[in-house]
Task: structure prediction
Amino acid sequence: MRAAVVRTFGGPEAVEVVETGLPEPGPRQVRIKVAAATLNPADAGVREGFLGDAGKQIGFGWDVAGTVDATGVATAWSVGDEVVALDPGVARPVRTHAEYVVVDTDAVATAPTTVDAVHAATLPLNALTAVQALDLLELEEGQSLLVTGAAGAVGGFAVQLAAHRGVSVTALAREGDEEFVRSLGAAHFTSGAVSAGSIDAVLDAAVLGETALEWVRDGGSYVGVRPGGEPASVRGVRTASIAVSADGARLAELAALVDEGVLTLRVAETYPLEEAAKAHARLAEGGVRGRLVLVP
Ligand SMILES: NC(=O)c1ccc[n+]([C@@H]2O[C@H](COP(=O)([O-])OP(=O)(O)OC[C@H]3O[C@@H](n4cnc5c(N)ncnc54)[C@H](OP(=O)(O)O)[C@@H]3O)[C@@H](O)[C@H]2O)c1
Result:
């Protein structure tokens, strides 16, 4: 089978599509025939050596939508099930940017039924990150949340999920994104200026760090998206960072929210797997709204 991998870290030209062995599922694992897999900013990091293992073949891809094609022992999934899954970020020779991928059963959920696989593939990584980050903030209905990078994948899901819970959301995004983030449920919009100490919590998907921390009221909360990279606590503000974890049960809840129309899935462009390097180059150009999706 074919898979997109990196063997020598570098720019988009470092992405290779190679012939590689078909992975076999072990106990409590399934093999998924990939229908679609998204390209995320973290894949650019992998290409540049973020997961380490220089000189080895390292696969790309966190998200997958596809069909269960083989099962190991002790799985509740059956061949033919239409699923989505998060393949967590560890250096492995093959990940979801491939024709087939093996994932743990605990990472798998039934795919949303109202969207195609290309759209479904955009759900796992960024919706799980958004919901797990919101969990860390422990917000109650009526409290205020500022989401930075609100027009991005993590930020967009965070705006929708928080607004759905009755949180009053301020979206921080580029000026041209105001209409879009308001359509996600943001009650307020800013492209930069926020009063110090004016907000209960910040979900900092644009990685503004200490600048965003200043906007949180004394005793509020801040969550960042760089694992371990959150600013130190000041004024009693709890600071934390999210490291997304695979959670099939939670992913199933998110898929249900897609089918209920609460979560919107956004696709910018699709590329054949063979053209993975082109997709990396497009991501590196910036300004992409919605996800780039690879189709084997
Ligand atoms: N820790 C984890 O487990 C985890 C999981 C998933 C993602 N992440 C991280 O979360 C971050 C967001 O990911 P993503 O996929 O949502 O990225 P994305 O889709 O590229 O979204 C980022 C958004 O932030 C905007 N932005 C950046 N700086 C801004 C600023 N100063 N003012 C206004 N808007 C600004 C970007 O606009 P432009 O495109 O115009 O710059 C873009 O719309 C990334 O750093 C990613 O690596 C972490």
